[in-house]
Amino acid sequence: MDLNEQIQDFGRRARGAARLLSQISSAQKNAALLAMADEILARTATILAANEKDLATARSRNLSSAMIDRLTLNPPRVEAMAQGIREVATLPDPVGEVIREWTSLSGLRISKVRVPIGVVGIIYESRPNVTSDAAVLCTKTGNATILRGGSESIHSNLAIAEALEQAGAKAGLPNDSVLLIPSTDRRAVRLMAEMDRYIDLIVPRGGKALIEAVVRAARMPVIKHSDGICIAYVDAEADLDMAVEIVVNAKTQRPGVCNAIETVLVHRAVAPDFLRKLAPRFAQKKVEVRADEKAFSVLAALDYQPLRRATEEDWRTEFLDYILALRVIDSPNDAIAHVGQFGSHHSDCIVTRNEATAEQFLREVDSATVYWNASTRFTDGGEFGFGAEIGISTDKLHARGPMGLEELTTYKYVIRGQGQVRT
Amino acid sequence: MDLNEQIQDFGRRARGAARLLSQISSAQKNAALLAMADEILARTATILAANEKDLATARSRNLSSAMIDRLTLNPPRVEAMAQGIREVATLPDPVGEVIREWTSLSGLRISKVRVPIGVVGIIYESRPNVTSDAAVLCTKTGNATILRGGSESIHSNLAIAEALEQAGAKAGLPNDSVLLIPSTDRRAVRLMAEMDRYIDLIVPRGGKALIEAVVRAARMPVIKHSDGICIAYVDAEADLDMAVEIVVNAKTQRPGVCNAIETVLVHRAVAPDFLRKLAPRFAQKKVEVRADEKAFSVLAALDYQPLRRATEEDWRTEFLDYILALRVIDSPNDAIAHVGQFGSHHSDCIVTRNEATAEQFLREVDSATVYWNASTRFTDGGEFGFGAEIGISTDKLHARGPMGLEELTTYKYVIRGQGQVRT
Q1: What pLDDT is stored for residue A253 in this prediction?
Q2: What number is the ipTM of this complex?
Q3: Please, what is the average pLDDT of chain B?
Q4: A323 has pLDDT over 90
Q5: Is the pLDDT of residue B364 over 90?
Q6: What residues in B contact A23, CB-CB < 8 Å?
Q7: B417–A373 C-beta distance less than 8 A
Q8: The pLDDT value given to residue A142
């Protein structure tokens, strides 16, 4: 079989599995998930040996230490993977939920019922635990999964997927419920994205080039997990101590994630006081500040280091590092305008004591999550109480923000009549 | 400006309008809608004169009489257009609705709030009233609209859009809330579909070639309004008189619409009785039946006309006419399998007295709407009680089935804290 035939074959098989999976009880799905967790643990040695092959390749290619860290599995990480699966098993199953029910004027009983999406394609890079996380959330919601991981983690992914597939099948899941594309050929991404007959949704998780390739080729819905250029605005009426805590947390608690902030806007009325409080805290973490003219002079007078002048490009950059763009502005309206122009509509926050200003910001900023007096780091399925997430959608439709189990379902209308015809 | 610059300019302007529109009160939007209705009526003569130009072109191109009928405006149709706008003004505004609200473990108050999508692109063919219907539903939900109608109705569309734009602006809507692309150049469709920076959703309404062109090029979500290959299954335990009424209604009440049935499956145990009852009713309407072997012999024995032998292609065809594909099957499972294989997952129905069989069908058929003992013709925003619809989505995500006002919105999370940071 050539690559295209192989992908088509995977699609056909996944479609068949999805039909059966949609009819399986929550108890059966949960039993299969627990079996998957056991199998992952039982195969720890095999999975680590496979991971060692990926790591050897990574080292020989001189991948960065951050990349190698993300790629690395070890016994605690395998254990965590299994534990993650067990937790998903304990979550409520959204499938079958009656979202709304009413009787139409013609006497029809209409029920809007939650159902699986069908076949979900996941295209991802680097971290092998995504193989398990994604497959397990899809299984829980009765979706068949076609996984396509990055070449750098291919051996780890294959070992994990094999454990999931075999444990699932033994526990009574349909064959082909979880499929991993074994080829690392880059054309596989395009072939998957064109296969709208067999894939109902594609979720790309990875860098810009990957997401762009999927968006360009896709014929089915895509839910992107893209940039987080998150912004905090410190208002003239902010509690400055609270503002410092929020900014330090949102920038430095874990700078490499999408819900960390990249830019701080501060009202000119409080900029000197705020920066005087912030500087020592940032200095501890060696945060590089890229400041506009006004902020630069305040920080330079404080002898803050490392300090650079911001360029316009900095407002548009997701640093994912101990780097912050800083701008002094004149009003809440300017903050809202900056967020609209430069942010990525992921998570943005205002710190203020003024309720009217806060409510204006919350209303006018069109982002997946908007915060008043809290760190943007809370944009997370776990923190929201969703129990688990497949990621943070930066798209507007179907799933926006944290994408949990509910967002892996759709609905259908079930209509019960007594012989009604339309006149 | 070349076409690309023109489309980009429309996009930029619509994005600006969307930002303002999202903040406008329901009262303001409703006042603007009523002004639009008045303006449409006031300009009846202008609109009819523009329509006459389109009709002259259509006649010179020898378009079919059905096409010409769909294209034709007259005073009652203009009146109906205005009346439709007034009705939308009376509907509840979904924007601002709190869909769900809870307090997270960290004490954050999280509200999931309904908001406009942003900029909606509508690409359609033939019927000029879509210009008004689509623009008005988008305005009601705070979305800016970029319309691209077919070349055959360009003069009518321009006249209607101008009335809507000017009345809206006079009533305080932002400029550029409703934009119609004046060019009939086919490349405009591709250029719109590639412009994901400025268009958040595209809804194509039209033939297969149009929808295919949009799907192929689109970088943003597309909600297709595609085929309705709807199927009715008459079970062994059906009330046959009810089955006849449902089949006659679903096939012949309005055969040219997407929720009319194209195929009837009948259980072999009742096929002769059912067809004996159906034949005289179908004969009245001159319905051409394309029957499988078993059904053919029953109908031939009854001397039914017009009668042909079905080919496999007939199971996959949306006739949109007084033509029905008919198949005798052995079981409810075979019915479910046929619907899964040949249907378009739009609207399908079972007629039976057996509740267990009905519930199996309702559960296992994965279509936007599944009916027990009712005509598929009820798949309609009005019949569902949505008040109005932009169409019937044949896609699975975001909107499935009738797409009303709610489906023209998305949500964001508004989060209110007291200084929470993540640990």
Answers
A1: 96
A2: 0.96
A3: 96
A4: yes
A5: yes
A6: 363-364
A7: yes
A8: 98
CB atoms B412 and A368 under 8 Å: yes
Residue B373 to residue A216, Cβ atoms within 8 A = no
- The CATH number for B3-226+398-416, chosen from 3.40.640.10, 1.10.10.10, 3.40.605.10, 3.30.428.10, is 3.40.605.10
The answer to whether B367 contacts A412, with C-beta atoms less than 8 Å apart, is yes
pTM of the entire predicted model: 0.95
Nearest CA in chain A to B23: A364
Instruction: Specify the pLDDT at position B387.
Output: 86
For testing the chain A interface, which of B194, B215, B252, B414 should be mutated: the one with the most A CBs within 10 Å? B414
Q: Which residues of B are less than 8 Å from A367 in CB distance?
A: 412
Per CB-CB distance under 8 Å, the chain A contacts of B375 are 420-422
Contact B294/B329 with Cβ under 8 angstroms?
no
- First and final C-alpha spacing in chain A: 54
**pLDDT tens sequence across B399-408:** 999 999 999 9
| pLDDT value of position A66 | 83
Amino acid B258: pLDDT: 93
A246: closest chain B residue by CA = B421
Greatest Cα pair distance, chain B, in angstroms, is: 81
Minimum-distance CB partner of B416 among A246, A372, A412: A372
| Partner residue facing B370 (CB), from A253, A384, A415 | A415
The residue of chain B nearest to residue A349, with distances taken between CA atoms, is B415
Q: Closest Cα partner for A15 from A175, A137, A188?
A: A175
CA distance, residue B216 to nearest chain A CA (Å): 6
Residue range B228-283, pLDDT digits in tens: 999 999 999 999 999 999 999 999 999 999 999 999 999 999 999 999 999 999 99
How is domain A3-226+399-416 classified at the architecture level of CATH? 3-Layer(aba) Sandwich (3.40)
Phi, psi angle pair for A379, to nearest 5°: -75, 95
Tokens standing for residue B58 = 């259509």
The residues of chain A that CATH labels 3.40.605.10 are: 3-226+399-416
Helices A26-42 and A154-170: crossing angle, nearest 10°? 130
CATH fold of the domain at A230-382: Aldehyde Dehydrogenase; Chain A, domain 2 (3.40.309)
CA distances from A91 to A112, A139, B29 (A): 22, 12, 42
Q: Identify all chain B residues contacting A369, using CB atoms and an 8 Å cutoff.
A: 412-415
Which candidate from A106, A371, A397 shows the least CB-CB separation from B201? A397
Q: Which residues of B touch A201 (CB under 8 A)?
A: 396-397
Q: Which of B249, B368, B416 sits opposite A421 (nearest CB)?
A: B249
- What are the tens digits of pLDDT across the range A353-372? 999 999 999 999 999 999 99
**Residues pairing with B233 in the sheet:** B265, B350
pLDDT for A388: 83
**Residue at A335: amino acid letter:** A
pLDDT on residue B151: 93
Instruction: Look at residue B126 and tell me whether its pLDDT is greater than 80.
Output: no
Q: Where exactly does CATH 3.40.309.10 map onto chain A?
A: 230-382
Smallest Cα–Cα separation from A154: which of A122, A193, A180? A180
**Minimal-distance CA residue of chain A relative to B349:** A415
Q: Please, what is the angle between helix A332-342 and helix A355-364, to 10°?
A: 20
Q: How far apart are CA B116 and CA A396, in angstroms?
A: 10
Contact A219 B215 (CB under 8 A): yes
Please state the φ and ψ torsions of residue A15, each to the nearest 5 degrees: -60, -45
